[in-house]
């Protein structure tokens, strides 16, 4: 969006210069013709440069926004849940007076309302940004990520990508998706055994990328949670950081409970 805006600004400036050029050409002013022609070239260069600058600024804003969402999720919802459990525990103590227990129950109700408001705010934040992002074909993006990663594994190991029929479009930030995919694939670089299977499929209202090999389970099963990261685009993520980034996109990373190593990246499907 930002790059298109910059190009549009440049094109507008160039078009204005062209009109000046035509007018002065008709008037027969040779010096003005030369100046206008220079303006055309300069405007085009400025437009492309401005588009590049705006694009970089936009990517930085997206990254910071994702960090805010992850931080809010962990810093708000986790303490609220812990506080609720603590209050519930106090209400069950046999030494807690009845009137105090009643007040604690009322406080728990208010705490639940606050927790619901936080959840709604974060979900709305994710919905807003999913709506802003262009549609992304997760099957094609995964295939491209695998092609870039394939040369890093041992040549005796095969990598197979399977895409199933159905829409695999998602509406999230493409750069973030590619970073999560790269981290997911890196877990199968050197420590795994056997061939690597990559499966992309639409599952209900989500799109799932599943990566597996023949090695024994190397990670505990369950959802992979992680903190917000300030690492730049060229820096590698840990698996936990990739899990946090997946959560900021409205999805999650998970380890399947299976006899072999199997990781999954799940995102909400585009409407």
Report on the structure:
The protein has 271 residues and is of the alpha+beta class. It has two domains: 1-132; 136-268, 2-Layer Sandwich (Heat Shock Protein 90), CATH 3.30.565.10. It contains six helices and eight strands. The chain has helices at 2-27, 30-91, 98-132, 138-149, 174-186, 239-248; strands at 136-137, 159-163, 169-170, 196-203, 206-212, 222-224, 252-255, 262-268. The strands form two sheets. The protein has a six-stranded mixed β-sheet with strand order 2-4-5-8-7-6, covered by helices on one side. The chain has a two-stranded antiparallel ribbon with strand order 1-3. Strand 4 and strand 5 form a beta hairpin. Helix 1 (2-27) runs antiparallel to helix 2 and helix 2 (30-91) packs across helix 6 (239-248). The longest helix is centred in the N-terminal third of the chain and has 62 residues, at 30-91. The chain starts with a helix and ends with a strand. Residues 1-50 have low confidence and may be disordered.
Major beta sheet, specifics? Answer: 6 strands, mixed
Shape: elongated
What portion of residues is helical?
A: 55-70%
Q: Per CATH, which architecture of the largest domain?
A: 2-Layer Sandwich
- Beta-strand residue fraction: 5-15%
Strand order of the largest sheet: 2-4-5-8-7-6
Rg over CA atoms, rounded to whole Å, is: 26 Å
How far is the N terminus from the C terminus? 20 Å
Compute the number of structural domains: 2
CATH superfamily of the largest domain: Histidine kinase-like ATPase, C-terminal domain
Number of helices: 6
Structural class: alpha+beta
